[in-house]
């Protein structure tokens, strides 16, 4: 009886050991598979990073070259043969618009053209496939639509600080002092019961 019990216990131990070995082997294989997958993912991530770095370098080189070419085209614009502007009439502004052109100002200085022949132009230079921005289109549309004005400001020092006052270039019209008819002064005799303008009442205040 004791021998039978020992045999049963031994068999149970062997079966349990076999199951544990099989479970450990399965766990080891799963762990190895996860490790292989992680290694493959890491290798793919490194390759993608390397490709991204290479592409970024190429993109930066293209962008740098495009920016350089754009600067060259912009700086050479005042001397281009395609437009009729005098180089001294072109002023670089930058920002939303590259150039402010006073077309004809050089010839006005030389007395060749009349001041009223002067034209103010806003010009922008784009290189290659570059396009105007929304703001640049709005500025050019405002200029071409006549939504422009010129301003003249006078700066003075007031209480230790600069103060600005907008002034007008055109002189304000002077008020007429006499009523006119056909450009001639109307005589006082032309009015009924016209007062004698040569006599002033003693109580009347004479304006300064």
Structural summary, described in words:
By secondary structure, the chain is of the alpha+beta class. It has a domain at 80-148. It contains three helices and seven strands. It has helices at residues 2-76, 105-109, 134-144; strands at 90-92, 99-103, 119-123, 152-158, 161-167, 180-181, 184-185. The strands form three sheets. Strands 1-2-3 form a three-stranded antiparallel beta sheet, with no helix packed on it. A hairpin with a 6-residue loop joins strand 1 (90-92) and strand 2. The longest helix has 75 residues, at 2-76. The chain starts with a helix and ends in a 23-residue tail after the last strand. The relative contact order is 0.05.
């Amino acid at each position: 009886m004791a021998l039978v019990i020992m045999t049963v216990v031994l068999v149970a131990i062997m079966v349990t050991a076999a199951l544990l070995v099989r479970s450990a082997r399965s766990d080891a294989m799963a762990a190895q598979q996860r490790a292989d997958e992680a290694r493959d993912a890491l290798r793919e991530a490194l390759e993608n990073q390397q490709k991204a770095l290479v592409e970024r370098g190429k993109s930066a080189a293209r962008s740098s070259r495009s920016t350089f070419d754009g600067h060259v085209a912009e700086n050479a614009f005042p001397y281009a043969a395609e437009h009729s502007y005098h180089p001294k009439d072109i002023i670089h502004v930058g920002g939303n618009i590259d150039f402010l052109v006073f077309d004809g100002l050089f010839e006005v200085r030389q007395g060749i053209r009349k001041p009223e022949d002067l034209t103010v132009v806003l010009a922008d230079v784009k290189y290659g496939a570059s396009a105007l921005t929304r703001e640049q289109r709005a500025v050019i549309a405002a200029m071409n639509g006549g939504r422009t004005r010129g301003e003249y400001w006078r700066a003075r020092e007031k209480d230790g600080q600069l103060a600005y006052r907008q002034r007008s270039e055109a002189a304000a019209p002077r008020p007429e002092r006499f009523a006119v008819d056909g450009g001639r002064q109307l005589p006082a005799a032309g009015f009924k019961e016209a007062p004698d303008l040569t006599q002033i009442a003693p109580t009347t205040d004479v304006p300064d």
